[in-house]
Every structure is written in C-alpha cells, then in structure tokens.
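Fold this: Class II SORL domain-containing protein
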Amino acid sequence: MALGNWIKSDDFKKEKHVPVIELPSDIKKGEPFIVTVTVGKEIAHPNTPGHFIQWIKLYFKGQDSNFPVDLGLAEFNAHGAAAGDAQGPALTEPEAIFKVKLDEPGTIVAESYCNIHGLWESSVEVTF
C-alpha cells in the first residue's frame, strides 16, 4: 500500500490535525517570505505525553518541476513527560516558521504527524 493512502486531510470535529499554512498575499519571485504552519489553530490539538504532534514537514512543488523540494522539518520533542504520570516542566507547541524563497509558482504542502491519528496534509498554491 502506498504512503499516500494513509495521509488524511479531513479533520475531526473536536480536535484539529490538518496543518494550517499561512503565507503573505504579496509573494514576489526570488524574494524571501515567511511560511507559518500550525496544527490546532482553530481548535487545539491535545499536547500531552500520550497524545501529541510529533513533527511538521514542508515541501514545495514548482509548476515546472518534476519533483517536490523538501523545505524543512520541525520536530516537537517536549510533550510534558515527566516521571510517572506527573506533568513535566515544558511543552513544545506544534507551530513552525520557515523562511522561503521561490523562483517559480507552485504548491506548498505541509504534513503533520500525530502519534495516535497518523499523517495529515494540506496545501496552498503560490502565485506571483
């Protein structure tokens, strides 16, 4: 079975998994811009030792390219774990910021991984 068959893009009603991609409306060819990816923007995703977002990954597929470009990976390693059932002293929230420069229009794709509910994906088109 292909990996694509396991990637989800429709969310549950009570918690959010699909990564939300935010970028400026005035992107210019060859100029850097900020891409923010968040999981749980509208409705919070749990962030506990037993249920958390492990990572967010960002790709770009140019309209004239044959393959996607791996833009980056943000890993979230502090999930509040401590000895026993106690809450630890730190949590990492599932939000990542990437500074990107593109030379052609195309599609930005974000994936996220929930340790219980698997892979999730969203995308946005980039035009100049």
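The radius of gyration is 16 Å. The chain has a mean pLDDT of 88.
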